[in-house]
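New to this. Explain the following:
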Amino acid sequence: MTTTPQRPSGRLLGAALAGAALLSAPAHGQGLTGSYTLSKVTFQGNAQVSTADLEAALPIQVGQTIDQTGLQQDADAVEAVYKARNVGTSISTKLTVLHKTRAEIAYTFAEQAPEAPIVRHVGVTADTVSVTGNSRVSTADILAAANIKPGQVVTNPEISAAQAAIVAFYKKANVGVAVNTDWTNVSPQHVAMVFKITEKDDS
């Protein structure tokens, strides 16, 4: 027999300040009635979390005996891995009982795509600060003008001030420039910051 309990979708607030993934709750009252040998566990759709990490987290491993409590424990462990990685997902669990002695579990994930962090006035930590696109002004001079150091907590006003300082430095060097700031989420409240420079040709 095969039962397919569906797990309601959850979402992660994909921002540097959003510290927890909101995952689907385990399905209660559905699944195994009795004990079986867990013969197979598969994972599909887990692009952002490795299969090895999910397998290692399971309290009940292939070859061991599983019942409804164990099924719940495995489901909770899968959710915990996703929560630890700050990856939002919905989870579908397909349970198949074979020959009244063996059970197979298939987890299918619909992961939420990673989102760029949102820098709010409370600030995030810039783990790294780098520069791209510059050829006529050195990276060291640009970073000195920006005055944002690795490990510093930054806010939107500070980023705007750094961009303005870079433009002012270019102006002194008689080079036109446009400056944008980009960042990628490293971990909750931590980003890798990049100043993207577009130098303008002399008119």
